[in-house]
Amino acid sequence: MSYQICDADKTKFGRYGGRFVPEILMQPILEVTEAYERLSKSKEFRANLEGLLKNFAGRPTPLYHAKNLSKELGRKIYLKREDLVHGGAHKLNNTLGQALVAKQMGKTRLIAETGAGQHGVATAIVGANLGFETQVYMGEVDIERQKMNVYRMELLGAEVIPVRSGSRTLKDAINEAFRDWAASFEHTYYLFGTAAGPHPYPSMVRDFQSVIGLEAHKQIMEEEGRLPDCIAACVGGGSNAMGIFAPFLKDNVRLIAVEAGGRGLGRTDKTADNGASLGCGTDGVLHGALTKILQDPFGQILESYSLAAGLDYPGVGPELAFLKETGRVLPKMADDKTALQGFRQLSRLEGIIPALESAHAVGYALQEPEALGELAIINISGRGDKDLATVMEYETL
Amino acid sequence: MSYQICDADKTKFGRYGGRFVPEILMQPILEVTEAYERLSKSKEFRANLEGLLKNFAGRPTPLYHAKNLSKELGRKIYLKREDLVHGGAHKLNNTLGQALVAKQMGKTRLIAETGAGQHGVATAIVGANLGFETQVYMGEVDIERQKMNVYRMELLGAEVIPVRSGSRTLKDAINEAFRDWAASFEHTYYLFGTAAGPHPYPSMVRDFQSVIGLEAHKQIMEEEGRLPDCIAACVGGGSNAMGIFAPFLKDNVRLIAVEAGGRGLGRTDKTADNGASLGCGTDGVLHGALTKILQDPFGQILESYSLAAGLDYPGVGPELAFLKETGRVLPKMADDKTALQGFRQLSRLEGIIPALESAHAVGYALQEPEALGELAIINISGRGDKDLATVMEYETL
Amino acid sequence: MRLSEAFQAKPLLIVYICAGDPSPAATPDLVKRLARAGADIIELGLPHSDPVADGPTIQAAAQRAIAAGMNTDVYFLVASEADVDIPKVFMGYYNMIFARGLDKFAADCARSGISGMIVPDLPPEEAGPLHEACLRHGVDLVFLAAPNTPPARLEMIQKETSGFLYLVARAGVTGARSDILQDTRDLIARVPDGVPKAVGFGISTPEQAAEVIRAGADAVIVGSACVDLIARGEIERLEQLVREMKAAIKAAKKSKAPIVC
Amino acid sequence: MRLSEAFQAKPLLIVYICAGDPSPAATPDLVKRLARAGADIIELGLPHSDPVADGPTIQAAAQRAIAAGMNTDVYFLVASEADVDIPKVFMGYYNMIFARGLDKFAADCARSGISGMIVPDLPPEEAGPLHEACLRHGVDLVFLAAPNTPPARLEMIQKETSGFLYLVARAGVTGARSDILQDTRDLIARVPDGVPKAVGFGISTPEQAAEVIRAGADAVIVGSACVDLIARGEIERLEQLVREMKAAIKAAKKSKAPIVC
Ligand SMILES: Cc1ncc(COP(=O)(O)O)c(C=O)c1O
Ligand SMILES: Cc1ncc(COP(=O)(O)O)c(C=O)c1O
């Protein structure tokens, strides 16, 4: 396994990325950058992380040939099984890596933001395992709709701090975590949950998540003796997508980023009916990076919408914004209904209940199978247990 | 990997086991016996199963050195991570194996019983994946308290049939499944969920689950260069325990079977306050086998009790009954409170939320660490996500 | 009376009831009424918490009986009191026998006038010890054969059974059904004439009973249909049903040409 | 008036308010009152949906202002109307500027009498294009330095800033606090005398303001304390606070011996 090292002076992907943060946070962020650059070259650090990925997180995850789905779609489909990672999603790949960075930096406290609770749980897990005090910011609205994950975090010894500002969802939880960090950086590490945010987070998170793609690259060559025609992954902030895409960027593989189409393309003054910042967003600055965002003409951030809490974010990582611009990554949308179809179909056909987020990639594949070519990989970023209540409720609507 | 083959004429372990079933079921059971014996020697069958275990179920599962728990207990503790198996518990090891047997037998329909829903979900998963019609019997009481697992089964395309007879729990679901099978055996395979029931189920389920112990045996030798002093596993019917114990039976390793102590040793006319048939039961026949059971002086089966639905069963597999008699396996109890302590402690110390069932083994270890020796393995048979509502509710009592 | 003796006077009607349903006190009288109505053998069920071979009707009867205080001690009291001059046969699950001790159980059967035992979850392979106890106390141990029992096994069961051979009419559990299958006819045909054979599971009407006798059975066992009437408190209709069944099998015995229904 | 001109008459009191709070219509009058009460510079905030550098007080003000119809177009109307003879400085997040277009934004500032811009989420590294736009339109671009800004970086920021240097009084976000830390004193001391330096974040009382001036600052920025009074509708107390602050820093300037509080 080898991580793509981010280069000291390169904080941007084309015009995207950068560090648009208050001065008080520049020093903490530069320290994280420096620590990560140093550690990513350290054999000991990598051995340590690889040990945890293997023995604690349960890696490698299988690349599963989904025979029934393949038959349904008339092409050969493999599923990358991040649903089997400890905690139930790819999120732990990143939290393990960053928590080890935090440890090496001598920090004793972790803070994180969470929307659906998956990154919060993954942070609480590493907090417990590696002995940090852990506090997770979560919007009040999200706390209400994700009670079980709140309880999981608490069981794991983390404190969940309700965020009452703004739209009281993920976006505001991130704001609040930055505010905390601005006062606490001395002992505290901000463990960001997706491949967005100020540099070095987009690169670092992509690197830690690229274990997905590195495994998949090796596995598909072993199984098929060739690379896939296509890889599809869902996109919230972009961490699972960049994780599986990164090791294939130089290859002739079509990379499809499936965003939340939500209820459609509608907008109001303050809200968008989707979470499709890559497909429908415009250039802007959110959470420390210049990227594609959902905003009004004046630059106010819109509240996004998706049935999948993990895709319900008005921004996206800057590297994906760049890769969209260059045409290397194709942004696509799956709306709520399509995602639900993916959710049901994968459950029935293969006995795998995907996360609603991942179900967007599956749903897209069901709708546009030709886009997948003859041999494709779909990234199943997480398992759907967390979404049962949501889907049940949606059904009765 | 090599399975311990069960011997054609040997239906018993000492005086335990056998086939106490209605004549109408003898032929179906003999056919299963024959098919299993034949297939367990078939290279193709084994390759097929190993493929699914690796690529679909996510095996091998890690043997994780739990550093914080080790420190807490003053000895070196490894956790066998069945919580990472697809579906969330060791149950899939067995359902994959048996479903492949059923497929080879030309059956088109699977039936199963379930208590907490874990075996039902594991059956629904293989039913979906391998293309069976699947029906799962589940007591009305259990349906009420395990709504999420009912919904999971339905999502996976299985039908959940409510059982209204008897105590309307697991025991009665098994009765009902046998009744179904007595009329449907021609096309239907009864996929039994634990290492109990009539021969060949106890041997077959043990064999399919012994992948746990075979992996652990190899892993502990790789890590430590020696065998553990002790292995602890929880016991409902005994499948996860026999699965990890079997490959160590000939070794000098102390094997501890932790049963549900429930509310204590109390009994009424019809109920016991625990699920400790190995520790507190007497010889009797239940669900087709002579074994240790919880019964009144006349032979009526008592309703068992445990906060962990998967341990809430008044019987136990015959092989464990035999191994208890010979002294090879030590039966121990952990009551609800101790299990909850195990649940919380493992969550906080290691970032692993165990199933309430597995938490019994952890709780026992916390209470009697000396019993573990210097180097021990605890089998974490499943993950605790399914138990969050139960634990939350218990807390507020 | 030994069962073999009873089987001299074929065709026989064997009536199953669950001891203790609706109450232990009611059972002896019920047995006597059934005998008077024409039953040739009474199959007296000992209720079990987990009656895996039984359908909903008999399960419910067992639950009522247990709730009404039925247990093994009471069972034998009731059986003694049900003093009739036709044979009584125990029917119940092995664990109830095992719990009391095999020898004691067989002895209690003998003492309370029970001629034989039917244990639906005890195949011959597991029956050795009980068989011995039964021999010691002169109690027959009746085995069952089913439509799916293969020839070699059927032969073994025929050899092992005593009193009579219980032929399971069709796949499934006890409970009233509306037709008699070809399977059942085949099974009856597969057993040589010398073996006394009673057919049960799902026989609920005089027509079915007659059909079974015409197919070659020596006896018909009727259970759920009777239990159902007891559950509804319709004892007179129960006696009526027994009378009709008896008449039907007698008539069938005479005109042995099979009727397709 | 250019900011550098204003800094001739040290010590200065810079007062922050959020444009549009409680309503766009109210803002021009508020600015005039503050100027009359003694403010030397008005920092006029453009509310943003995601004010990451701000504490609860200013967040709430932004939400009120947005709800009351404040947007960038309205902002510049309001700023023009707030016709005072002290400098006005824009304060707001980069995305609002970026969305309008950097050049247009700087031009609008110049047109509506805004002398400078404070953009708390725009470090010098990212500020190149805006800097150019500001130069084109004669608007100062003020950078911030914080207690944890290391020496080399502080030097770079000093060089890059124009108008004055905004010193962040302490770790955290905007919001009233009760003490001034050693960190702040150190930061003030680390900036050479030639650089005009204003200290903000958390200064809410005349005592704190005085202390900051005694520590060597050229100006004090007060924000949340004022916003809080506006939120409560206590405009006279706001004017009173401004008067007291102004008096305190003037007095402090004369007797420059530091007081520990
Ligand atoms: C299972 C799962 N998949 C995908 C996502 C989206 O995040 P990202 O785009 O960073 O992979 C989330 C976020 O919570 C998630 O939980
Ligand atoms: C996680 C888990 N562990 C243990 C058990 C107990 O079963 P067994 O004793 O067969 O392993 C169950 C049963 O449902 C279970 O779900």
List the helices and strands and how they pair.
The complex is a heterotetramer, with 2 copies of chain A (397 residues) and 2 copies of chain C (261 residues).
Chain A lengths: L11 E2 L2 E2 L5 H18 L2 H13 L7 E3 L1 H7 L2 E6 L9 H14 L4 E6 L3 H13 L2 E7 H6 L1 H9 L3 E5 L6 H15 L3 E3 L10 H9 L1 H14 L5 E5 L4 H7 L8 E9 L14 H4 L1 E5 L2 E5 L24 H8 L3 E7 H15 L5 H12 L7 E6 L7 H9 L1
Parallel strand pairs in A: 4-14, 5-6, 5-8, 6-7, 9-10, 9-14, 10-13
Antiparallel strand pairs in A: 1-2, 3-4, 11-12
Chain C lengths: L2 H4 L5 E7 L8 H11 L3 E5 L10 H12 L4 H10 L6 E4 L2 H7 L1 H10 L2 E5 L9 H10 L2 E6 L5 H10 L4 E4 L13 H9 L6 E4 L5 H9 L4 E4 L1 H8 L3 H20 L7
Parallel strand pairs in C: 1-2, 1-8, 2-3, 3-4, 4-5, 5-6, 6-7, 7-8
Helix pairs in contact in C: 2-12, 5-6, 6-7, 10-12
Bound molecules: pyridoxal-5'-phosphate (2 copies).
Summary, kept brief:
The complex is a heterotetramer, with two copies of chain A (397 residues) and two copies of chain C (261 residues). Chain A has 397 residues and is an alpha/beta fold. In chain A, 44% of the residues lie in helices and 18% in strands.
Please supply descriptive tags for the structure shown above.
heterotetramer, A: 397 residues, alpha/beta, Rossmann fold, 2 domains, four-stranded parallel β-sheet, 14 strands, disordered N terminus, C: 261 residues, TIM Barrel, eight-stranded parallel beta barrel, 12 helices, binds pyridoxal-5'-phosphate
Description:
The complex is a heterotetramer, with two copies of chain A (397 residues) and two copies of chain C (261 residues). By secondary structure, chain A is α/β, with parallel strands linked by helices. Chain A has helices at residues 23-40, 43-55, 67-73, 91-104, 118-130, 140-145, 147-155, 170-184, 201-209, 211-224, 239-245, 277-280, 318-325, 336-350, 356-367, 388-396; strands at residues 12-13, 16-17, 63-65, 76-81, 109-114, 133-139, 159-163, 188-190, 230-234, 254-262, 282-286, 289-293, 329-335, 375-380. Chain A folds into two domains: 12-53 and 91-205, Rossmann fold (3-Layer(aba) Sandwich); 58-88 and 209-396, Rossmann fold (3-Layer(aba) Sandwich). The longest helix of chain A is centred in the N-terminal third of the chain and has 18 residues, at 23-40. The model of chain A is unreliable at 1-8 (pLDDT under 50). Chain C has a single domain (3-255), classed as TIM Barrel (Alpha-Beta Barrel). Chain C has an eight-stranded parallel beta barrel, surrounded by nine helices. Chain C is globular and about 45 Å long. Residues 89, 115-116, 118-119, 194, 234-241, 310-311, 355, 357-358, 381-382 of chain B line the site of one pyridoxal-5'-phosphate (PLP).
